[in-house]
Specification:
By secondary structure, the protein is an all-alpha fold. It has four helices and no strands.
């Protein structure tokens, strides 16, 4: 595993883990007022797990096997799917979002990260590992 890939995994994990952990905290504070609390808690817990996985894979480095790269590919597809959905909702219904400009930038950032992780997972999964 190259150093740029390890840096990408580590930084992506550091961005994902605390941001979704914070979302869980906000959800806990306004539990009774969030109409989408169950989907939000599912996506938040999945994303916290994804952040932890990305950090773990960066720490694994060259010891990461084919299954790890296949999981990375799956994680990237989940990330791209969710953030594409989120981006579409912001573009179609900006009046329903409390801060559409910030969430638009956040969606684009995580979509780019998802694409980079997808390419990295695909390349790592298809190359020969010792």
């Amino acid at each position: 595993m190259s150093k740029p890939l390890r840096a990408l995994l580590f930084i992506s994990g550091l961005l994902t883990l605390p941001s979704w952990g914070f979302r869980l905290y906000i959800l806990f504070i306004r539990w009774g007022f969030d109409p989408y609390r169950w989907p939000t808690i599912f996506v938040s817990l999945a994303s916290v797990g994804i952040g932890g996985f990305l950090i773990w894979m960066a720490i694994q480095g060259n010891r990461a096997g084919r299954r790890s790269y296949a999981a990375l590919f799956g994680v990237s597809l989940f990330t791209m799917g969710f953030w594409t959905y989120r981006l579409a909702r912001i573009l179609i219904y900006p009046e329903n979002d409390p801060n559409p400009q910030a969430h638009l930038r956040l969606s684009i950032t995580f979509l780019i990260i998802g694409v980079l992780l997808c390419v990295s997972g695909w390349r790592g999964r298809s190359r020969k590992l010792s």
